[in-house]
Amino acid sequence: MHKSYRHTGPRRPVFFGLPHEPHHAGWAAWAFVFTCLLVLALSLAPRPGQAQAMLLPTAQLQIGPHTVQAEVAATEASRSYGLMNRASLPPDHGMLFVFESVGMPCFWMKNTPLPLSIAFLDTSGRIVNIADMQPYSLDNHCPTGPIAYALEMEQGWFRQRQIKAGSVVTNLP
Predict the structure, then answer these.
(1) Are 112 and 151 contained in the same domain?
(2) Number of domains in the chain
(3) Gap between the Cα atoms of 36 and 58, Å rounded
(4) Claim to verify: residue 71 and residue 122 sit in the same structural domain
(5) Are residue 68 and residue 122 in the same domain, yes or no?
(6) pLDDT at 2
(7) Residues 84 and 163 in one domain
(8) Could you tell me if 63 and 113 lie in one domain?
């Protein structure tokens, strides 16, 4: 007669149903699951530059006869990130910064490789002043009066179209 014996030794730890010891055959399955979760997490993380273009709403603005496609940065996070890490802008594209209240916010170019021009706009969309900003500069560029919006474009865009202080931007959100 044959007797069966029940194993009473120490049990091996199990995590998500997979053995935790590397010498066990299930270790490869655990490594595969971990790798898949890591790849998924990394694929969902925003990429600098790309995330901005894909996630921000856009608005079609008018400045006289000129049309601008502008990404709208209306949250603290999107305004803080702005056009950082962008290598280029399509023609007639920019970023419109929308503020909750009228103020005198200043801008700088940390981590921004593009030379930009910025137009500061009051509540009616009238351009208060325009400033040119150099790539990676920590110099502050401030409005000369209270503003509700700021529009960043490729450097020289306003000058090339003879847009100056006093011009009005319409179709603002």
Answers:
(1) yes
(2) 2
(3) 34
(4) yes
(5) yes
(6) 46
(7) yes
(8) yes
Q: What is the mean pLDDT of each run of 10 residues along the chain (173 residues)?
A: 47 51 56 58 49 73 98 95 94 98 97 97 98 97 98 98 98 97
HEC letters along 87-130: CCCCCCEEEEEEEEEEECCCECCCCCCCCEEEEEECCCCEEEEE
> pTM of the predicted model, to two decimals?
0.70
Computed over its alpha carbons, how large is the radius of gyration of the chain?
A: 27
Confidence (pLDDT) at 140: 97
Q: Residue 157 and residue 154: Cα distance in Å, rounded? A: 6
Helix, strand and coil content of the chain, in percent to the nearest 5, comes to 20, 30, 50
| Nearest by Cα to 92 from 62, 52, 128 | 62
- What pairs with residue 133 in β-bridges? 116
Range of the domain at 16: 1-45
Eight-class DSSP state of 14 = E
Task: Tell me which long-range contacts 1-5 makes (C-beta under 8 A, separation of at least 24).
Answer: none
Kindly state the tokens that stand for 12.
Answer: 């091996």
Question: By the 8 A CB rule, do 135 and 111 touch?
Answer: no
Amino acid letter, residue 73 = A
User: What pLDDT shows up at residue 142?
Assistant: 98
Distance CA 45, CA 126 (A): 38
- Check if the beta carbon of residue 119 is closer than 8 Å to that of residue 157: no
